[in-house]
Write a structure and sequence with these properties.
Blueprint lengths: L4 E2 L20 H14 L4 E3 L9 E5 L14 E12 L3 E6 L9 E6 L1 E7 L5 E7 H14 L10 H15 L9 E2 L7
Parallel strand pairs: 1-9
Antiparallel strand pairs: 2-3, 3-4, 4-7, 5-6, 7-8
Length: 188
């Protein structure tokens, strides 16, 4: 089932995700729904907070990026209870966008290599190192489960330049080809 994407300004996007167990109710269906939602929304990653759940779960399929970024070949994985345990001092800058912040793309500097520990959809443990654009995609989704958005990583001057767009998103003025949930509006 295609789930709606929660948009910038919704409080769930700022919550710290909680660890889950294999007993988390409806987990396998939730994971299947997240894959379907991600593909329908034309994303390469989707984190649980983006569908209204403050849990440590995200899915990534960066394989479509392999032509430009060979390190993304075969990167299709479910990440549960992930923890980045190491980040390189070396950084890379690239443009990023987000399904929860439609219409905004900004240059973000991130560590070029990370090591991450996580459980897969079968709750099997993994410890893997990723570099380049693959590391970027994982860090972007990982930030979601930490309550961080990519716009938190950009220069102050750039934040000022997109402030109006962000305000409009927070007020529910959004255009996307997928279903969305906007922030609750305050009554006057």
């Amino acid at each position: 089932m295609k789930l709606p994407i929660y948009i910038y300004g919704h409080p769930v996007l700022r919550e710290m995700g909680q660890d889950i167990t294999p007993e988390y109710e409806g987990l396998q269906q939730l994971i299947a729904d997240m894959w379907e939602t991600m593909y329908f929304s034309e994303g390469i990653g989707l984190a649980a907070p983006q569908i209204g759940r403050a849990i440590r779960l995200f899915v990534i399929d960066a394989d479509p990026m392999k032509e430009d970024f060979p390190e993304c070949a075969g990167l299709k994985q479910t990440f549960i209870n992930a923890r980045i345990i190491e980040r390189s001092e070396e950084t890379l800058s690239e443009n990023e966008g987000c399904l929860s912040i439609p219409g905004i793309n900004e240059r973000v500097t991130r560590p070029s290599t990370i090591t991450i520990e996580y459980l897969d959809a079968d709750f099997q443990p993994h410890r893997e190192t990723y570099s380049g654009f693959a590391a970027r995609v994982i860090q972007h989704e990982y930030d979601h489960i930490e309550g961080i958005l990519f716009i938190d990583q950009i220069a102050t001057i750039r934040k000022q330049l997109i402030k109006g767009k962000l305000t409009n998103l927070a007020k529910g003025k959004v255009s996307a080809h997928y279903r969305v949930v906007t922030a609750p509006q305050k009554r006057r």
